[in-house]
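Trying the structure run again after the queue cleared.
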Amino acid sequence: MSRDEAAPTLPSWFRQDLPGPEELRRVKGMKGLLRERSLHTVCEGARCPNTGRCWNSGTATFMIMGDTCTRACHFCAVKTGVPGPLDADEPRRIALSVADLGLKHAVITSVTRDDLVDGGAGHFAATVNAIHAVAPSASIEILVPDFLARAECFETIAAAGPQVVGHNIEMVRRLAHAWRPQADHDRSLEALRVARRSLSDGLVKSGLMVGLGETDDEVIGALDELKRAGCDVVTIGQYLAPRADGRQWPVARFVDPGTFEMYRREGLAMGFAEVAAGPLVRSSYLAEKIYATACEASGI
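Done. Tokens:
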């Protein structure tokens, strides 16, 4: 689909119930805490459609290392440019927020920081260690950039002891170069292989979007690539152009729920511990539930 063509109409299965007064109060309270501590969430930065639902259940995905990415992918709403210096106190504030919110499963992601020598791996490790110190019962899931597939970066974060290390391939191979001009499909797969080798235990996770112009066979092929790269868990969700500012490209098709269920069946048949697939699924969508299901399936 050309970026100049009109996107198809949003189908009925994207409708969600409006939150009630109590839910709105909880979301407002979480926003206030995050603003008070100068923290960012990918929920807001990426304009996730599930923000209200996740925040109401006490789940939030913290985005560390600032709100400015050094890459400019054509599906992402996070701003791109020259990031500022790292905030050395950020890991402590993240950890306190995890404790204050009573999170059982903390999800930490980041912008890509190609400007840093280690890509920010040390900052991820510091954040994981800080959470362990104040919320030792919380499981920790991190969703990281590719770190240029450098083993030392993944070894740094693995040593901190996160329960889940994720990196998203984002889309099928054929579309990757056009949509992710500063990334590389094979490098992302290698990053997942390196993550698998670096983790003594725990789960490796990845995710991709559909509705960008791929075929169903290409999605199944991507699942096969991920399984061979050592992934345990995969998420598959519908791409939604976050805003019409000329950078994000339009939706090519809306994948129906039945097709998402087919993706899930095919993935489970390949041996994944869990495959979460659906129109509103995102990398950190229902992350605590997905983690628990994958642990049970893996015997962890």
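The CA atoms of residues 237 and 263 lie 10 Å apart. Worth checking whether this holds up in the mutant runs.
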